[in-house]
Specification:
Layout (H helix, E strand, L loop, with lengths): L1 E3 L15 E2 L3 H5 L3 H17 L5 E9 L2 H17 L9 E3 L1 H7 L10 E9 L2 H14 L3 E3 L4 E7 L2 E8 L6 E5 L4 E2 L5 H9 L6 E12 L8 E5 L5 E7 L2 E5 L3 E2 L12 H8 L2 H4 L10 E12 L14 E4 L5 E4 L6 H16 L21 H12 L3 H11 L3 H6 L13 H9 L6 H8 L2 H4 L1 H19 L3 H18 L7
Parallel strand pairs: 1-6, 3-12, 10-18
Antiparallel strand pairs: 2-5, 3-5, 4-5, 7-8, 8-9, 11-14, 11-15, 11-16, 12-13, 13-14, 17-18
Length: 493
């Protein structure tokens, strides 16, 4: 099997999610029972595969009254039954006293009650990398920066693809018994190479998240807020930061890799905070980072993006190419099995029973994340807060990362030198952007040190990859420009 990627691994939508492994409680209200059942149960599978990338957390749903609390509990109870949630993980009801202890910054005058239920936090880009490494270990060939520029025909059937190296410009023809188009927002563009006509199946949707310092919004749990248009958005604490998202608006632009972040997007996300939390008002200047991505939703008539089902669809093109679009991050494993069943049917083969959710790289942990972090910190002689972050990125491979260099790149920082070596030698990073955005995640989760980080990190990468001074300077400037572009909404008054 060969898998080629247009840009870096997870460079697009796969690194721009809400970082949740969840069943999507709101889809239950939309009547999408099958999707909710499947993804709610898949949470367990992802946790088994990568406990460091599927960490159980409490998701808090505030309630204005006891009656509204009972309504929320009824919905969550159904959700838990669909997801076969074990008794120990079932939802809890919090009153004023519990909220005062467990979520003290919530406005109890507005929300004296809450229901807390289990969901899972992840790191989407690290999850992609771990799955790819697992595939490579099983014999797959994977390559990034190798975009498909044409398809290969054998008679009336697509027999492979032509890909062009983004580094050298060389082209290579890749022959295959079956070709799968799983390119997210780009599926229509690739499908046109086969169909030779316009393909109009998607309804792209833009999702924006903003990041603030935890000191400005000191929440302790995941929290759901309702927006002015009755949608639900999340408050997502992680380390020293809190992310707020996501928007869900139809996207008609052409910046599929880095879609624009508008002031209206940021206003929309910040506006509900004052109703839910007893904190000083947050404005544009409080946003220290932001990300946006495009969801490849399958169009459903005249429905708006927020109303469209997240259920994936698979279809066969005129030349036999198999295309998949839609779906949710949580269901990536079942989506892959669906595609493989489709491939097997087209080839007249039998795949046999599906494999179980075995641990992927980093996922072979025998204790809790906190216990593992404490053990590693004691063994290496570094502070546990530094290791806490690493364990949630690298799992049981944290000790190997630290063995490559345990000193912080920035004095007093959390990103260590060994992560640069690991990013290049193990995770295939080729640029500074790869490192800070999709390997260390420093761009969004360590904003206090990210500006100071990029020059010394670039120097370390230069030694590993043989960059000259000109290339190193260009890498630094490219990342600085990317940082600035994410916060450009501040200047677009």
């Amino acid at each position: 099997m060969a898998r080629v990627e247009k840009d870096d691994y997870a460079a697009g939508t796969s690194s721009r999610s809400s970082k949740l492994i969840h069943g999507g409680l709101r889809y239950l209200a939309m009547g999408d029972i099958g999707l909710v059942r499947e993804t709610a149960r898949e949470r367990k599978a992802v946790h088994q595969m990568a406990p460091h990338l599927a960490e159980p957390c409490w998701m808090v749903v505030p309630a204005r009254s006891r009656a509204s609390l009972m309504k929320v509990r009824a919905g969550i109870g159904t959700y838990e039954k669909l997801g076969a949630v074990e008794d120990a993980d079932r939802h809890l009801s919090w009153d004023r006293d519990a909220l005062g202890e467990l979520e003290p910054c919530m406005r109890q005058d507005e929300f004296p009650w809450a229901c807390a239920y289990r969901e899972y936090m992840t790191d989407d880009a690290r999850l992609v990398l771990a799955v790819l490494r697992d595939a490579a270990a099983a014999g797959a060939h994977v390559a990034n920066r190798l975009p498909v520029v044409d398809v290969v025909w054998e008679g009336e059937r697509v027999d492979g693809v032509v890909a062009e190296c983004g580094v050298s410009g060389d082209q290579v023809a890749i022959r295959a018994d079956a070709v799968v188009n799983a390119t997210g927002p780009w599926v229509e563009r690739l499908a046109r190479l086969e169909e030779q006509t316009a393909v109009d199946r998607l309804h792209p949707s833009k999702g924006v998240h903003v990041v603030v310092h935890a000191s400005r919004l000191p929440v302790r749990n995941l929290v759901i807020m309702e927006t002015s248009d009755k949608r639900s958005i999340f408050v997502l604490p992680r380390g020293d930061t809190v992310a707020i998202g996501t928007t869900d608006t139809s996207y008609h632009g052409d910046q599929l890799l880095w879609p624009e972040i508008e002031r209206t997007d940021v206003e929309y996300l910040l506006h509900p905070l004052k109703r839910y939390f007893d904190v000083d008002p947050l404005g544009f200047d409080d946003v220290v980072a932001a990300w946006s991505g495009v969801r490849p939703l399958v169009a459903q008539g005249n429905k708006e993006a927020a109303e469209i089902s997240r259920k994936e669809e698979v279809w066969l093109g005129a030349g036999g190419m198999i295309t998949i679009a839609g779906g949710k991050l949580t269901g990536f494993r079942t989506m892959a099995m669906t595609v493989l069943d489709f491939v097997a049917e087209q080839l007249g083969r039998s795949l046999g029973p599906s494999p179980g959710p075995d641990p992927i790289p980093g996922g072979d942990l025998t204790s809790s994340l906190d216990a593992h972090a404490a053990s590693v910190a004691a063994a290496v002689g570094v502070e546990q807060p530094l290791v806490d972050r690493l364990v949630r990125l690298y799992g049981d491979e944290t000790s190997e990362v630290l063995a490559l260099g345990h000193q912080p790149i920035v004095p007093g920082g959390r990103v260590v030198a060994g992560e640069v070596d690991w990013a290049v030698k193990v995770d295939g990073a080729l640029t500074l952007e790869d490192l800070v955005y999709r390997r260390t995640r420093a761009a969004w989760y360590t904003p206090a040190e990210r500006d100071a980080l990029i020059a010394p990190a670039a120097s370390l990468m230069a030694d590993l990859l043989g960059w000259d001074e000109s290339r190193t300077t260009a890498e630094i400037e490219a990342v600085r420009t990317r940082f600035a572009s994410e916060l450009q909404f501040r200047d677009n008054a």
